[in-house]
């Protein structure tokens, strides 16, 4: 089962161009593969954000839930 929180009605989803991400989650996320860089890749369809871009390049399954990765979206954060 996906560990991402359930979507509420009217909330942005994976197919939405804008995803709402908690600032607390962004501030404390680090890549689960290298443990050095900030997580910046969204894996679909599971929705996990757990890897930096360099580590995500070679992945075919999500390192958190082992779901197949159909699409990778890079997040760009602004301050």
From TrEMBL:
PANTHER family: MITOCHONDRIAL E3 UBIQUITIN PROTEIN LIGASE 1, MITOCHONDRIAL UBIQUITIN LIGASE ACTIVATOR OF NFKB 1
Pfam families: zf-C3HC4_3
GO molecular function: ubiquitin-protein transferase activity; zinc ion binding
Keyword Metal-binding part of the UniProt annotation: yes
Protein name from the UniProt record: RING-type domain-containing protein
Annotated keywords: Metal-binding, Zinc, Zinc-finger
An example Gene Ontology biological process: protein ubiquitination
RING-type domain location: 31-66
Lineage: Eukaryota, Metazoa, Chordata, Craniata, Vertebrata
Organism: Callorhinchus milii (Ghost shark)
């Amino acid at each position: 089962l996906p560990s991402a929180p359930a979507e509420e009605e009217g909330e942005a989803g994976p197919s939405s161009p804008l995803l709402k991400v908690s600032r607390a989650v962004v501030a404390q996320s680090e890549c689960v593969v290298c443990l050095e860089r900030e997580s910046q890749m969204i894996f679909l369809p599971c929705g996990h954000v757990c890897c930096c871009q360099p580590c995500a390049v070679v992945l075919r399954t999500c390192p958190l839930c082992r779901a197949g990765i159909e699409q990778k979206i890079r997040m760009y954060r602004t301050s």
